[in-house]
Amino acid sequence: MSRHPRCSRIRLALCVATGAVLAAGSAPGQSAAPTRTARAAHTMVELITAGDALGRGALVAGVRFRLDPGWHLYWLNPGDSGNPPTVRWQLPEGWSAGDFEWPVPERIPLGPLVNYGYHGDVVLPVRLTPPASREGPATVGASLKWLVCQEVCVPGQARLALALAPTGASGSVWVPVADPDRAQVGAWRAAIDGARRRVPRPAPAAWRVTAVSRGDAFVVTLVLDRPAPSRVVFFPLEVGQVNDSAPQEVSSTGHELRITVRKSDLLTAPPGTLRGVVAFSGDEGYVVAARVQAPEAPG
């Protein structure tokens, strides 16, 4: 669901400019016929597929953004400002689509702000599930809206479509109908697989994760099944719980990892559960969740 940027910690001029371009981007005008690729301000966007089935009839596709140097796109939680990409699928009867799979993002400083997002070549994978009966080609469509920022923010929108046909003995593998698209499936698969390797995994069951509310900070402690790394970033999954622009304190001893993050100045009461992505170096990320505990009383 689209959100307006939060203005409490943003320079007024930047906030007004961002709100203006968002309003412009929400105006009607997507009358052009959908294509597989589209060019918008500072962005090339395309609909791609890995071509392979994932089991139980599902296949993997991806929305690919190629951003101009210096411009960034937003993560699921955009941080201090911004909006993540949204999609509305136009699918044949009997098809369904999952949510975007979000790779581990970057912390992106912008003046006094810190946003969470991506630069460069960005792929957001998604699972598509066709019906059990696979007869004839099918066209998958996607209506996209997004926001890219550098010093200013610019909205983009596009209508994309990709024609697919079942192949193989079981008809469970879907490939593009057009020969030029089919020739690119190998490269598309590499791009999608690379993005999916960076999608955070659930934290291993052997890990112990706790969170304590302590003054103006949350202290997240993880006891791992391996030596704790020293380079770690915590990305909150919920908006308005963590002060995104504040530095994070990380300490590690043996298998124990401790991350201290400042509370958001918008937070009026500690949340019941603190959820986030703990990202190690090399784009290795894990989804963690812990009930927020009050600090222990002095003995």
Q: What does it look like?
A:
The protein has 299 residues and is mostly beta strands. It has two domains: 12-199, Immunoglobulin-like, CATH 2.60.40; 202-293, Immunoglobulin-like, CATH 2.60.40. The protein has three helices and 20 strands. The chain has helices at residues 12-25, 179-182, 185-197; strands at residues 37-40, 43-55, 58-67, 72-79, 86-90, 96-97, 106-110, 113-119, 121-129, 138-149, 153-167, 173-176, 201-202, 208-214, 217-223, 232-236, 249-253, 256-262, 273-280, 284-293. Strands 13, 14, 15, 16, 17, 18, 19 and 20 form an eight-stranded mixed β-sheet that branches. Strand 14 and strand 15 form a beta hairpin. The longest helix is centred in the first third of the chain and has 14 residues, at 12-25. 32% of the residues are buried. The model is unreliable at 1-30 (pLDDT under 50).
